[in-house]
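Reading a protein record of the kind used here takes only a little practice. Each token is a code from a learned vocabulary of local backbone shapes. With that in mind, consider the following protein and its fold in token form:
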Amino acid sequence: MSYNDAEHALVQAAADQENQALASWVGRIALEVAEETVVPTSVTAKAVVAELIEARKQVKRIGTNYNQIAKVLNSEGEVEDAQMAAVHRALVTAIQRLDQATLQLMRERTEKG
């Protein structure tokens, strides 16, 4: 195998991160990909997946907030405008993050396929 200087530095850094010799790391990763025990993904794709996971967590928290607000309203309580506005802002932000991450993932899949 041959790499240009930038590629070599990237692969070497990955091997160093796992405290392995470069040839051992490359051999192990190549075998895992060939056996389909791992699917190679770009650093960008990993970041997109991490963003989707984080957005999912936020949406779940927002859902909890909405349930709490609904409980108060159903018991004839009062919910302050500031509280509703905060939940709304969190929801809009989470939806925007999900949209951006989904579009990025779709772009990557289109570029590869």
